[in-house]
Recover the amino acids of this structure.
C-alpha cells in the first residue's frame, strides 16, 4: 500500500513538472475536452498533445474515453489531492513556526527600541 | 506609554509559501517585518529558537535545544511528549554568514544528509526569508513525509486546521 502510493506520487510529480501538462490540467478543471480541442488550445500537434495526455493518464491525473472517433479527456478522481495535502501540511508547519517567530521578532524589535532610546539619552 | 506607534501597521499575517521545485527540493518563503539581523539572531540563539521552533500546534514540545551556530558547529533539537524524548533532529552548520545566509545539514535520516540553505534579504526594514531544503534522494523525501498509511489521518488533521484558520 505504502509502495503503491509512493510510486503513484512519483508519477504525479513527474507529470506535474511540465508547464503544458499543468496547463492541460487547468483546462480540464474548467471543462472536459477532446484531444483535438487540447491540441488547438496549446498549439500542438495531435501526436504531441497525446504524449502529454498519456503521461497525465499514467499518473492518474487524467482519464480519457473514446466515444466514436473522439477521445474525451477529463480530470482523474482525487489524484491531485495527495500532493496538495502533502505540501499544505509542510506549509502549515512552517507557517505556525513563523507566526511564533513573528512574536519573537516583535519583542526583539521593541527591546532594541527601548535600549536604543536609553543609549541615546 | 504606547511603545507600538512608530512605523507600526496593524498586525497582518505574512504568508508562508511552500513549493516543491524538484524531486528533492522544497522552497519555503516568508517575509518578516523585522531587520535581517534580528531574524538571523532568532535562528541562531537557542533561547530564541526554543520559543518558536515547536509551536503548540505541532503537537510535540521541544525538550532540548543545543545550537552552536559556527561553521562546523552542531545543533540538536530533542522533541517529545510528557517529558520523554521521542525524536531528535541534529546536524551541523556548514556555512554561517551573519544576517544573510545559514546552511546546515540534517543528519538524522538514513541515506545521507539533507541540506537546508536559508537566505535573508532585507529591504526597507522587512526581510525576505528563503529556505531551500534539499533531500538526499526522492526516497528520502517520501520517508520524511511519512507517506502512505498516515495520509487519511492527515486529511482529518488538515481539515481541522483549515477550519481553525478559516475561523481566525
Amino acid at each position: 500500500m505504502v509502495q503503491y502510493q509512493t510510486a503513484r506520487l512519483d508519477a504525479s510529480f513527474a507529470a506535474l513538472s511540465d508547464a503544458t501538462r499543468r496547463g492541460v490540467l487547468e483546462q480540464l478543471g474548467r471543462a472536459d475536452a477532446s484531444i483535438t480541442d487540447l491540441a488547438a488550445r496549446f498549439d500542438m500537434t495531435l501526436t504531441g498533445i497525446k504524449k502529454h495526455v498519456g503521461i497525465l493518464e499514467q499518473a492518474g491525473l487524467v482519464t480519457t474515453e473514446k466515444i466514436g472517433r473522439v477521445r474525451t479527456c477529463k480530470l482523474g478522481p482525487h489524484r491531485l489531492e495527495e500532493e496538495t495535502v502533502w505540501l499544505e501540511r509542510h506549509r502549515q508547519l512552517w507557517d505556525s513556526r513563523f507566526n511564533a517567530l513573528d512574536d519573537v521578532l516583535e519583542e526583539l524589535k521593541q527591546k532594541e527600541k527601548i535600549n536604543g532610546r536609553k543609549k541615546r539619552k | 506609554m504606547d511603545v507600538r506607534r512608530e512605523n507600526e501597521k496593524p498586525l497582518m499575517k505574512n504568508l508562508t509559501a511552500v513549493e516543491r521545485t524538484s524531486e528533492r527540493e522544497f522552497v519555503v518563503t516568508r517575509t518578516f517585518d523585522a531587520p535581517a539581523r534580528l531574524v538571523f539572531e532568532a535562528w541562531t540563539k537557542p533561547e530564541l529558537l526554543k520559543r518558536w521552533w515547536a509551536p503548540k500546534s505541532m503537537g510535540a514540545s521541544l525538550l532540548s535545544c543545543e545550537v552552536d551556530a559556527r561553521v562546523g558547529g552542531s545543533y540538536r533539537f530533542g522533541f517529545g511528549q510528557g517529558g520523554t524524548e521521542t525524536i531528535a533532529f541534529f546536524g551541523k552548520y556548514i556555512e554561517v554568514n551573519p544576517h544573510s545566509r545559514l546552511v546546515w545539514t540534517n543528519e538524522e535520516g538514513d541515506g545521507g544528509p539533507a541540506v537546508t540553505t536559508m537566505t535573508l534579504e532585507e529591504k526597507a526594514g522587512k526581510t525576505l526569508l528563503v529556505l531551500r531544503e534539499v533531500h538526499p534522494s526522492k526516497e528520502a523525501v517520501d520517508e520524511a513525509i511519512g507517506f502512505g498509511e498516515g495520509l487519511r489521518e492527515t486529511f482529518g488533521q488538515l481539515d481541522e486546521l483549515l477550519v481553525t484558520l478559516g475561523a481566525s
In short: Residues 151-167 of chain B form the longest helix (17 residues).
